[in-house]
Amino acid sequence: MKLHLLITCATAxxxxxxxxxxxxxxxxxxxQDSLQTDSVIAEQPKSELQIEVIHFRDSVKIAKxxxxxxxxxxxxxxxxxxxxxxxxxxxxLLNYDVTMDMRKVFAKAAKRYFxxxxxxxxxxxxxxxxxxxxxxxxxxxxxxTPHYVSLIFSGYDYRGGAHGMPWNYGITFMKSNGHAxxxxxxxxNKELVRPFISEYLDQDIIENVAEYxxxxxxxxxxxxxLDPWLxxxxxxxxxxxxxxxPYAIGMPSAYIPAKKAKRILKQKVMSLLED
Length: 275
Description:
Blueprint: E1 13-19, E2 32-42, E3 51-62, E4 65-76, H1 81-93, H2 102-120, H3 126-130, E5 134-144, E6 148-158, E7 165-174, H4 183-186, H5 194-200, H6 203-212, E8 229-231, E9 234-238, E10 253-257, H7 267-272
Parallel strand pairs: 4-5
Antiparallel strand pairs: 1-2, 2-3, 3-4, 5-6, 6-7, 8-9, 9-10
């Protein structure tokens, strides 16, 4: 299948708003250091989607160190069915009212993040006062075809302890109506994908899944909580950290060729893979 990923920035229009003080609702928060937002829209042929690139970064000095909230987005621009749907999805993930302006959404999310840290820090908790929170959030285009757009949602949230919590998963949005695809869109029965996971997941991981998940020896890994998504001609199955193994194995993924799994995939999926 031919992928139609056109991310051309040669004719981009750049709009930058940077200052040493926030111009959001957080302007009066004591100790705020800086807020920076960049926005780039790449001009595409009318038949293709325009792509918006946004970088949002906010930092606040809490206790002895600076906490950071950093976001990078590379997503279809607002104004298209799928671009608007993606923005609604992001707003829902962050539990905010729907808006097409992603910078406003993440400005509010950063404010909430910093407020949460202030609530949890106590004067006598010296370790917490010297180890600031930090969140790095990225949403990036993986694939654009005539029928769908797949995005990668990834990031890392550190709030103390030996390590933070990472995430890395995809979501496929149908271009025709903006629908974010779920398990029900891919398979008639979620359990049917388990043998395919065994075949296409790293075998070193498979060997330890039964013990970690308390399954009978030789059992197929359980289907993950995250929804499948499309990457080219493959169906991707993602696991979260700790879901089928210790933190050290990361967030395993199985890339299942759609043609191999055709008998258990719904016709809707196969139609999206047509040229």
